[in-house]
Amino acid sequence: MNIAIDGPAGAGKSTIAKKVAKKMGYIYVDTGAMYRAMALFMIKQGIDPCDAPSIEEACKIADISIEYRDGEQVVLLNGENVNAYLRTEEVGNMASVTSVNAKVREKLVELQQKLAKTKDVVMDGRDIGTVVLPNAEVKVYLTASSLVRAQRRALELEAKGESADLSKIEADIIERDNRDMTRAISPLKQAEDATLIDSSYMTIDEVVEAILNLVK
Asked: CATH number of 2-215: 3.40.50.720, 3.40.50.620, 3.40.50.300, 3.80.10.10?
């Protein structure tokens, strides 16, 4: 059984996918974390996101793998657990830009498809239902308004003791949406056979239950 969850940044895909996977006893595959790991590697190497040849060279020497420890997904970049570094704004923005590179996508999609062929998985990202797992039994397009997503992000930052400019956060989200939806390779879009779920005014548990009902 493969469950594909797509949607824009800040829609809550990772949180929802993890909970659905736990409820079903499936493996959760956070594809965004894999792209972020590649982006982190490029940042560490000082690679310009506009430098395609350097990005393609990085693909050759960056080893990204997934392990499960006590039921938790651990992303390894060249053998190092990089979970703690993957959710920064810098890494997220770099991943959004560099993930359009065909070589980056080719390498990571191959790993994702290999996992899905042998395991029951819940996978979330931007192009799971359209490209990575086009034959997934359940497809969901999870979204929320840009303002709601910005408010959620602001609360996360404030909880960490960081300042949050709501208007700037929303502007960044809108810009990232546009970039993801208009890129030439695997743009963000709702698969024709996916169920649309707008979580703007739903609780996490309500969204999880809606997806579990689709599985049943």
From this structure: 3.40.50.300
